Each structure stands twice: as C-alpha cells, then as structure tokens.
Amino acid sequence: MAVEKGQAIQPATGKLGVMVVGMGAVATTLIAGVEAVRKGLAKPIGSVTQMGTIRLGKRTDNRTPLVKEFVPLADLNDVVFTGWDIFPDNMYEAASHAQVLDRDHLGSIKPFLESIQPMPAVFDQYYVKRLSGTHVKEGKNKCDLAQQVRSDIQRFKAQVDRVVVIWCGSTEIFLEPTAVHQSVKSFEKGLTENDPAIAPSQIYAYAALKEGVPFANGAPNLTVDLPCMIELSRQNGAPICGKDFKTGQTLIKTVLSPAFKARMLGVSGWYSTNILGNRDGEVLDDPESFKTKEESKLGVLDYILQPEKYPDLYGNIYHKVRINYYPPRGDNKEGWDNIDIFGWLGYPMQIKVDFLCRDSILAAPIALDLVLFLDLAQRTPELRHIGIQEWLSFYFKSPQSAPGLYPEHDLFIQSMKLKNTLRHIMGEELITHLGLEYYD
Ligand SMILES: NC(=O)c1ccc[n+]([C@@H]2O[C@H](COP(=O)([O-])OP(=O)(O)OC[C@H]3O[C@@H](n4cnc5c(N)ncnc54)[C@H](O)[C@@H]3O)[C@@H](O)[C@H]2O)c1
C-alpha cells in the first residue's frame, strides 16, 4: 500500500465514538475518569495526551507545547462511550463491582455512568474458562456473530463522526496463529466454518476493521496480531496496535533493564511475582489464560538485554514470572521483583522492588491515550494505511511490529519514537539529542 506523504492531517471535528470491548475494571475506570476530568473533579494524571509536553526545535528555542495543543486530538468533551460485555450491568454497577474508584467519586457522576449499558457480547467460555455470562449474542456461526458486531458498529457510527474500538476484555486462552489467520480470505472461510482457532476477540477485531474502524488491543490475546488483521487494517485504512497494556511490573522492568544494559552490568536472575484479587486475577488463575499473559511478560528481558550479543552479562539469566490470585487485595496489586545483578569482576548484588500499585488506575490513562492516538493516526494520511502503529509501542508489554522486525521494549526508546512520530507528522525537525550545534 502506497504511503501518502505531505498531505494534511484531517481536523478532529465532531464526536469521537469509543467502543470498549469488555466493560470491567479498566473500562469503567477509563469512562468514569474521563467524565470526572470533564467535570473538573480530577486531573488526567498518567495521560501523555492530556498532561504531556513535547519539545520542538533547539533547547534554546523555548518551544514546549502540550501534546494536545501540538497535534489535532479529539477533545475529551467530544468523546462518547459505548461497548460490549457479557454482563448487562451499567457502568455505575460495573464500576461499583470493580471497586477501583471510591463511592464519592462514582456518586458525583452516577447518572452519567448509569446511562451507559453494554451491548450483548460475542463470548464462548472455551476461550475464558473462569467466566460465564448471560448477556451474550446468539448466531448460527462465527460469521453471523461478526455481522451482528458490524451492525452494532454501524448503528453507533450513525450517531458520531468517527469511531475507535479498544479491547479491555478478559485475557483469552493461549492460541497460536494457524492457516486460518494467514489471509482475510482464509479467515472469512474460517468464520463460516466456525474454526476453533478464531476466538471472540478476533471476531470483534475483524468486524471493526471491516468497518474501517481502528482497533487497539489491551490484552495479550493475538486479536489483531495476525496476518489477516494486518492485511485488513492496511486495506481499509484502519490503524491497529497491541498487545497488553504496559502498566505496573513490566513498566518498571522496561525502565530498569535498559539501565543495567547501558552500564554493562550483568543480570543472573529476575524473579517477578504478583498478587491481585480483581476479576482479571481470577481469569488469570486459569493456567490457559495465564500462559497468554506469561508469554507477554517474559519476552521483554530477552529483547532489551540481547543475551546473544552479551553472553557474559545476560547469557545465563533465570527469568520467572508468577501471578497469584489473592482476593483481599482487589484491584490493588502488589508486584515484587527480586533482581540478582553482578558488577566489576563478577561481584553479585541484589535489588528488590515492591510496587504496591493500582492496576486500573495505571491502565485507564493508557487506554485513553491509545484511542485518541489511533483516531489521530486514522486522520493522518501517512499513518492511515500502514497497519501496525509501532510508534505506540510505549503503551504495550508486547508491542506489535512489522513481520520479521523485533519489537522495541526500552521505555525511553519507545517514548522517543512516539514523540518523534508526532514531530514528523507535523513537519517539525526530529530530535536526535546530538547537541553539537550548541558548541559551534
Ligand atoms: N493494569 C491492568 O489493569 C492491565 C494491564 C495489562 C493488561 N490488562 C488486561 O486488560 C484486560 C481488562 O482488565 P480488567 O482488569 O478490566 O479486567 P475485568 O475482568 O475487570 O474486565 C474484563 C471484562 O471483559 C469482559 N469480557 C470478557 N470476555 C468478553 C467478550 N468476549 N466480550 C465482551 N466482554 C468480555 C468481562 O465480563 C469483564 O467485565 C484484561 O485482559 C487484562 O489482562 C490489564
């Protein structure tokens, strides 16, 4: 697909419709948070689109606008939410169940939250063993279900100006790409034949991309990380990104490990364990869903530390990740890391990290940034038809990249990539940090 250069970015006029698949802890924290910010009740902390700035030109130029004033993003007042879930609870009930935000916060926006009710979901317990829901679509095959989701999207499209879909649903069982995922044609055949390799998340992704709607994937499921979805995304000018929001432990891991590598310090072991008690924790207590998450969490170190290039430093690293379901903590996860490192002449040292975090408080601003940036990508001629938006790697544990290209995991490279992409599409000079010009 030809990349269109030099054409203007379409303005963000009118309403942006955000369709959330899976309206649980992350989704309700996102939706309630956006409304609280709109009402001036709280600040959008953690959101790069709302609070971040971007330096332009030389350090002496003193040009550092807010990101949202530099690129044409949808205004929060123009964002409208809907979505799907296997439970019929409205957003007030679902947020109360998730117990992330306190009663006072929710009470102040109760009528707004009560006005949003999920549409029936595409769901099959085979793919998420620990859940069973009643608010589910029925269809004669997977193709029929995809058509029903397309109709939902079409109805919503008629009420707003642009639409983005984001997966905030549960983690599905571990699946690998098969022949059915190799092209749009084989996928469509698989839909009519009810191919078991097609999970519900893929049905939503297919429906969105067929409708020319961008799709972000916040869970570690394959979903849009498949050749057929990349093909459809490029064809229909519907940008995609994924997988798995980078929120707590992995965020810290992708900050610390580049530091070790930059200083040429060795790592012999990294033991990461978590306790969490929300519904996500319950789903991940099933070994098949955990395997999907484990793969996503484990990849990070290998890519950052490059043991094949530094066998003396990282050739023998023992990396383990555990997640334990522990109901008393709810959404307030505790993630421990024990890191065994070694320095000059091989002398060992240890670092302990104990992150008492709040899962959905960390994830909600990521979800917000992703929908706003995907909408921007679709309005940007140079990004619209490229498929995977690798510049959004910053937000993911397991970032999608072009086939054959290894992903960038280092948070600071990812941040530079994101900001340079914004500079590039706005015709500003890229920042290399060379800085020799200050010493001419
Ligand atoms: N910090 C974080 O919270 C974080 C970080 C990275 C990834 N994630 C991922 O984000 C996802 C959401 O996390 P959460 O804490 O909000 O979980 P949650 O269990 O509170 O919410 C998930 C919701 O998805 C719904 N659901 C499941 N399958 C569905 C389907 N096929 N269609 C429609 N709805 C469906 C469930 O009913 C539930 O309400 C999980 O996959 C999680 O692993 C979360």
Could you please describe the fold and organization of this structure?
The chain has helices at residues 25-38, 48-51, 67-70, 91-98, 103-107, 110-114, 142-157, 184-192, 200-210, 227-236, 249-262, 279-284, 287-305, 311-314, 359-379, 381-384, 411-425, and strands spanning 16-21, 79-85, 119-120, 162-167, 215-217, 240-241, 266-276, 318-325, 334-342, 348-356. The protein is an alpha/beta fold. It folds into two domains: 16-245 and 360-425, Rossmann fold (3-Layer(aba) Sandwich), CATH 3.40.50; 249-356, Dihydrodipicolinate Reductase, domain 2 (2-Layer Sandwich), CATH 3.30.360. Helix 1 packs across helix 4 (91-98), helix 7 (142-157) packs across helix 9 and helix 9 (200-210) packs parallel to helix 10 (227-236). The relative contact order is 0.15. The mean pLDDT is 94. It binds nicotinamide-adenine-dinucleotide (NAD). Nicotinamide-adenine-dinucleotide (NAD) binds at residues 21-26, 84-87, 98, 121-123, 128, 131, 133, 168-171, 200, 218-219, 244-245, 247, 278-280, 359-360, 362-363. Nicotinamide-adenine-dinucleotide binds at residues 21-26, 84-87, 98, 121-123, 128, 131, 133, 168-171, 200, 218-219, 244-245, 247, 278-280, 359-360, 362-363.
